[in-house]
Each structure stands twice: as C-alpha cells, then as structure tokens.
Design goal:
The complex is a heterodimer of chains A (about 260) and B (about 270). By secondary structure, chain A is mainly alpha-helical. Helices cover about 75% and strands about 0% of the residues of chain A. Chain B has one domain. The chains are: A mainly alpha (about 260), B mainly alpha (about 270).
Chain lengths: ~260, ~270
C-alpha cells in the first residue's frame, strides 16, 4: 500500500516539475482559472440579483453547489482527464505494453500517470468560494456538516473516477474514443445546477444513469446541513458501486487488449 | 493566386469536404453532441422563469432562445482554428502552401461542405422548437425570416475567419491553446451563448453590443425569436456585413504576416 502511495507521489512530482517548467503557461493558467470561475458564476449573479431563490436554493446554497462543481472540475481536468487521454494514447500506440510489464497494478499506474498541476488554483478558488458562501449565509455552521461535506466531496471524486474509468476502458475495444470522454465532460456541465432544477425525467437520468447529482447536489446539501442520513448513505453507496463497476469493466477490458505495436 | 482558378477548383474542394465529413461521421456526430451548453443554460433559466417572467423573458421565451442558439451554433460554429494551429505546429501546413489555392479558401470550402450535414442535425431541433414554444415566441415577419439565411452565412464567415486568425497566430507562438480558451471565454460571454444579451449586466451588455461576437450567435437568434422593425433588421445586417469584411481582412493580415516566418520541420 505504501509502495503505491509512494509511486503516486513520485508521478505527481514528475508532472509538477514538467508543469513548472513552463512558467508563463503557469501564470496564464492561473489567470484563466480566475476568468473561467467568474464566467461560471456570472449566470448565478444575474439570477440572484433579481430573485431570492430558485427551486428551494437561495444564493449562498447555490454558491456552495457551484463551489463543489468547480472543485470537481478541477480534479477532473487536473487528474482524471489527463490520465485518461494519456491512456487512450498509449493504447493506440501500443505503449500500454510497458504499463502491463511493470510489477504494479495497471489501473493504479494509469490513473496516476499524468497531472495538470496548475488546476490546484481552481481547487483553492473552489474552497474559497465555499468559505465565502457559508459566511454570507446567516445560519450557524456545524463542524459535523463540514466534515460530512468533505467526505462527500471525496465520494463525488470517486463516483466521477468510476464513470471515467468505465469510459476509458471502452477504448480497449474501440480505439478512437477520446471523443467519448469529451462528451462525458459536456454532460458533466449539468452538475453546476442543482438536480432539482431539471424536469423529472432528466432528474432521474442525472441521478441514476449519468449520476452527476451524486457528485455535486447531494454533497453540497451535506455541507449545508440539509442532507438526511439515508440520502447520505445512498450517495456514498452509489459512489462505491460506481468504483466497483469501473474496476470490473477495467478487468474485463484489459483481458481483450491486443498490443498495437509490432 | 487567381480567383478564377479557385472558383474552378471549388466543386472538387467541396466534394473532398463532403467525403471527409462522411469518413469521420462518428467523430462528427460526437462533436455535435458535445454542444450541450445551451441546453445546460436552458435548465437554469427555465427553473428561474418558472416563478414568473425574468426581465421580460417567460419560460417559452427562454426555451425558444436557447433552442435557437443550439441551431445557430450547430450551423454556424467552426473549429477551423484548431486545425490551422495543429497543421502549423506539425509542419503539415507546407502541403497546403504548395497548392495553388489560398489555404483560407481551401479550408473554407472543406468546412462549408460539412454544413448541410450539420443542418440535418439542427433541423429536428428546429421542429421541437416550433412545437414546444407554440410559435408564440417566434418571429413571424417574412422579411426578418428571409434575412435569416444571409445572417447565418455571415455568422459562419465571421466565426470561421476569427478562428482562422487565432489558429494562424501559431506562426508566432508555439502554444496557441491558451488563446483558444481565452477566445472561447469572451465568445461565451459576449455572443449571447450563456444568456440573452439584453439580460447581461449593464457594462458587459454595452461592450457586447459593440463587438463582433453578437453577430456570431445572438443576431441570427434574435431574427428567429424577436420581432424587430425593418430598419433595425437592415441596420443590424449592415453592421454584420461590416464585421464579416473586417474579420476576413484580419484573418488575411495575420496569415500574410505569419506565413513569412513559417519554417516547416520534418520530412
């Protein structure tokens, strides 16, 4: 276990070093992160300038949800997507052989292979936004809720990771599949609004089929202290199930890998 | 380069474009499906307008607006900049430079050929639009609707030319990707893609009225969804013509300055 942890940290260090090498890019990345965040928040600012609440969500709670969205997007674009793109590239070129040869679990090695270090700025921004939103909300903040909120954020990351691994595994069968992760990324955009804002049919899809609700709506509710124990448990269970499905699909997929190299 | 020669090569170039689109049909379809932002935005505004009209927009108005946006973006969108940037970076642009037709014309022909295919995707949406909003939120003036075709064509030309110009900046910079993100941010904000321009906060709205972005999305959408006076339509159309010429001129300028520094690497 510690071996895997050491390995993951080492890969992170390598990515960070190569990221820092382009200092201008790092600065541009930071500026872009702030601009993107402002842009993502703009519709909410326009809306809550006029109305007090939408489908039971007032401005501070919508901001907390948005912070969860931004945080998850940072993890997605900073850790998950780069690794998945790297994986599809290796499958296409046949370089995946070398991954299989190494004496560690291939899924772990692949999942931690590539990072975009400057996405950490987005993550810090998201944390700042949560603190700001909780401060302007005139309800007391309980430590238990914050704790559960953090746990639920990790659960959201796990759910997202499971979904993306399923998608990445598909590229063992259909080689040109990086498109599909783009599609998944576009659907993930839905997660910026509470799932309650959508018509019933879509609500079901976003909770059970492409479970973006598990990633932002329920975790945000936990942070706000509005989530009952049963939903919290169901959300955690859902994320765990996604992780297991991801693992199973990966195991099946890897068996049908036929090297592309000579 | 003579215009006559480019003109004679046009049918062939269009045929090649069609063949390319058909060959990469799965990817093409996925790219269309990733245009989900208008629908995501519709989710928010629909929920907001459920409690009553928002700054003059009812639920039906928002539905019509964002579905029209989806149609316009599908018909008039362009991602040529990525292609130009990549070809310059990889050196394959040299192949295009050898041909006797200007790359702008050649790429425009190849991309224009995919527009009918995109219409096939956009038309069903148009139907949903007509049925769901009951026509009450759609414009009915014949002149206005007749102007939709040229407005869409020019919207595409402006988008194409500006994307081309940004792609051509790869002649000067090795990494143009950051620029695309920056451009896309401005585009989303100022073109009416995120929300109708008239509900943007005051200062941003003023800026949006004066920049070319609104002629890429908002203007054709307004032609579809908002009743306008004849003079307003013609005035807007004249401004759109102006921006079309200006953006093509900018694309040509950047290209001419850049191509002089071009060094192709590789065999």
């Amino acid at each position: 276990m510690t071996r895997y942890l050491r390995l993951a940290i080492l890969q992170l260090r390598i990515s960070a070093a190569s990221g820092m090498a382009y200092r201008a890019d790092f600065l541009l990345g930071g500026a872009m992160a702030l601009a993107t965040m402002a842009m993502t928040l703009l519709p909410l600012l326009v809306v809550y300038n006029v109305v007090d609440q939408v489908e039971g969500w007032d401005a501070p709670s919508a901001l907390v949800l948005m912070a969860y969205f931004l945080g998850l997007r940072a993890v997605l674009e900073g850790m998950i997507s780069p690794s998945v793109i790297d994986l599809t590239e290796r499958i296409r070129s046949g370089a995946f052989d070398y991954v299989l040869l190494k004496p560690v679990d291939a899924q772990l090695l692949v999942s931690t292979s590539r990072y975009e270090p400057w996405k950490i700025i987005d993550l810090v921004g998201a944390i700042g936004l949560v603190i700001y939103a909780l401060a302007i909300r005139d309800k007391p903040v309980h430590a238990v809720d914050v704790g559960l909120g953090i746990v639920m954020f990790l659960s959201g990351v796990i759910a997202m990771y499971g979904l993306w691994i399923v998608c990445a595994s598909l590229s063992f069968w259909v080689v040109r599949l990086d498109n599909l992760t783009f599609l998944l990324g576009s659907i993930f955009d839905v997660a910026r609004w509470p799932v309650q804002m959508f018509p019933t049919a879509w609500r079901v899809i976003f909770t059970f089929v492409v479970p973006v609700a598990l990633m932002t709506t329920y975790p945000a509710k936990a942070m706000l202290g509005e989530l009952d124990a049963r939903s919290a448990f169901a959300t955690l269970a859902g994320s765990f199930v996604l992780l297991v499905i991801g693992r199973l699909v990966w195991r099946t997929a890897i068996r049908s890998y036929t090297s592309a190299s000579s | 380069m003579s215009i006559g020669r480019a003109f004679r090569a046009m049918p062939t170039m269009l045929r090649v474009g069609v063949a390319e689109t058909v060959a990469y049909r799965a990817e093409f379809l996925v790219w269309i499906l990733t245009t989900t932002i208008p629908l995501v935005m519709l989710g928010l505004w629909n929920a907001v307008a459920a409690q009553g009209t928002f700054k003059g927009y009812s639920q039906a108005d928002f539905t019509a607006y964002f579905l029209a946006t989806l149609i316009v973006r599908n018909v008039a969108g362009s991602w040529v900049g990525w292609q130009v940037g990549e070809e310059i970076r990889m050196g394959t642009m040299s192949m295009r430079l050898l041909r006797p037709v200007h790359p702008f014309v050649a790429l425009a022909a190849s991309h224009a050929a995919s527009i009918p295919f995109r219409c096939v995707v956009a038309l069903p949406v148009a139907f949903i639009l007509l049925i769901s909003s009951g026509g009450s939120s759609l414009a009915t003036e014949p002149l206005q609707l007749a102007m939709l075709a040229p407005a869409l064509l020019m919207a595409w030309l402006i988008t194409f030319a500006i994307m081309f110009a940004i792609g051509a900046l790869a002649f000067f910079l090795t990494r143009a990707m950051g620029l695309f993100s920056l451009y896309f941010l401005l585009f989303m904000l100022l073109s009416g893609y995120l929300m109708p321009i008239d509900i943007l906060p005051g200062p941003i709205r003023v800026v949006a009225e004066w920049l070319p972005f609104r002629y890429m999305v908002s203007f054709p959408v307004e032609l579809m969804t908002k009743s306008m006076s004849t003079t307003a339509v013609l005035e807007q159309l004249a401004l759109q013509v102006g921006w079309t010429i200006a953006s093509i001129a900018i694309a040509m300028f950047v290209w001419r300055r850049g191509v002089r520094r071009f060094e192709s690497v590789g065999g």
